[in-house]
Specification:
Layout: H1 6-20, H2 27-43, H3 53-70, H4 78-81, H5 86-93, H6 102-113, H7 121-141, H8 164-185, H9 193-218, H10 225-232, E1 240-241, E2 243-246, E3 249-252, H11 254-257, E4 266-275, E5 285-302, E6 307-315
Helix pairs in contact: 1-2, 2-3, 3-5, 8-9, 9-10
Length: about 325
């Protein structure tokens, strides 16, 4: 590995090392190392159960004895034997992450970057720290002014006038009315739930357009403006985006994530869907199911008065 810090090595030891040595070492040696990894994972957790500390202290003694059976004496310096006292420190001082030095070591790099005159490092750090503190304090009182050298937040001016949840709530009564209309118009299919759902999916948009139009002719105040534009439908010209910011959360398409080190193209959807036993099942059961997918395209549907983002995803087959 290249460029790893001490904290990265600690994480590798706690999480990945037990898996990495699974097919490399013999079972007795692998068992001893895995016990040591689990011990560090337990004492470095954000929450520590005090009632389990005595058991941890007993286990680490046995773990060190197992290590002495399979590793040479030169391996056991003072640092290895100090592991016995770590549980006592947790009992007296609390969780480890409040006391370790990793955040301070990272901040040392920031302080080193302040040094421009290497003959006076202390003065450079002090002056630069005071200058940055003053600038940050002033920018809090000048939030409406464009600053030089301080990038504006991506969350500014990106709030959408309408969300997909609001649209669903406005259309939900019409969905129920359309299902009743289908059962009334096709009485011989009243017991075939899957057929009714397929018919609803294929005819609902056109039915909603005529339904809203008839309600507007009868009572102009009974239909909200948002519902009018939803019934008309979006513009046929749909712009595509590689990234989209919604309520402070940034979503990327898969092609955008392929050239980056971060990943923002994965999505999770909890939806109510029909579950069938087989292809011949005519009465499926409605239940909530979780879907995992990857964003391939981001559409921005334009309804003249507002826009609604839509994701075209490749969904993972969880069956």
């Amino acid at each position: 590995f290249f460029g790893l810090k001490s904290h990265d090595c600690h994480t590798l030891m706690q999480q990945l090392l037990p898996v990495a040595i699974r097919s490399v070492l013999e079972k007795p040696a692998r068992y001893a190392i895995t016990r040591l990894c689990f011990f560090f994972n337990a004492i470095c957790a954000k929450t520590v159960d005090v009632s389990k500390l005595d058991k941890l202290e007993e286990d680490v003694v046995v773990t060190l004895c197992l290590l002495e059976k399979y590793f040479p004496p030169s391996f056991f310096d003072i640092m290895v034997h100090l592991v016995v006292h770590l549980v006592r420190e947790v009992r007296l001082c609390g969780p480890v992450y409040f006391r370790w030095m990793y955040p301070l070591e990272r901040y040392m790099k920031v302080l080193k970057g302040y040094v421009q005159n290497r003959t006076r490092p202390e003065g450079c750090i002090a002056e630069r720290y005071i200058a940055e503190e003053a600038v940050e304090f002033c920018t809090q009182h000048l939030s409406d002014v464009s600053t030089v050298g301080v990038p504006s937040s991506q969350k500014m001016g990106v709030s959408k006038p309408l969300s997909g949840c609001t649209n669903t709530e406005e259309v939900l009564p019409y969905i129920e009315q359309h299902m009743i209309h289908i059962k009334t118009a096709y009485p011989k299919f009243r017991k075939r739930t899957k057929w009714q759902q397929d018919k609803h999916n294929s005819t609902f948009i056109q039915w909603l357009r005529f339904k809203v139009q008839s309600e507007l002719e009868e009572d102009n105040h009974g239909v909200s403006e948002n519902l009018r534009w939803l019934a008309v439908g979006p513009n046929m010209a749909v712009p595509l985006y590689r990234s989209y910011l919604i309520k402070g959360i940034k979503f990327n398409i898969k092609a955008q994530d392929d050239v980056r080190t971060t990943q923002n193209s994965g999505v999770y959807l909890l939806a109510q869907t029909m579950q069938v036993v087989s292809a011949k099942d005519k009465n499926p059961i409605l239940s909530n199911m979780g879907f995992y997918g990857v964003i391939q395209e981001i559409w921005d549907l334009d309804y003249q008065k507002f826009t609604i983002p839509a994701f075209r995803c490749d969904w993972i087959d969880s069956s």
